[in-house]
Amino acid sequence: MKFFIDTANLNEIREAASLGMLDGVTTNPSLVSKEGKVDFREHVRAICEIVNGPVNAEVVGTDLETMLKEGRENAKIHPNVYVKVPCTADGLKACRALTDEGIHVNVTLVFSAPQAIMAAKAGAAFVSPFIGRLDDIGHQGMALIADLVEIYDNYDFETEILVASVRNPLHVIDAARLGADIVTMPFSVIMQMLKHPLTDIGNKRFLDDWNSVQGKK
Ligand code: E4P
Prior knowledge:
Number of strands: 8
Order of helices and strands: EHEHHEHEHEHEHHEHEHH
Bound molecules: erythose-4-phosphate
Shape: globular
Strand content: 15-25%
């Protein structure tokens, strides 16, 4: 299972990378906007210098021509750039065209199995089902992941399932149980994954015991 971080914040990316568990990065226009008025290409290049794995950079154009132009420009930033396109008709056309040019494409904003099947058929390298946003509206996001794992398995689709819009460690565990290929997590969830009160209590007790004897003259 691959772990990506879902942020455009360079400090968070550096910190996660230093934990030795980071396989890639997802960004989106909202996440990049949080970083202020950055030069997008320079910012993506900086991320690629920190992480040796797929770095997902999304197009903002909504028509085919603009998506193709932006997709090609993004792909030129660094060989590790994966171009994100939305799951729309023009997004799928862009996915097929860019894939045929040898560019890796991530079809994003996926909320249903039919959309994910279309993305796989259009040659997507990654498909990004947004499970948190489904949960938010009372749908079982994880049920979509279960469907996709089964469907993609039935046909040996090569598209990797990138579980997105993750809100907590339970999402990660459920995705791992189902055999999803990739989970992308905000920095806060990465840190929550690491946390256990018994680890902190145990660590404190070890150190207190050690110091109670070693600290004596
Ligand atoms: C994935 O690539 C998206 O950037 C992200 O997971 C969206 O998550 P959100 O629903 O928390 O905005």
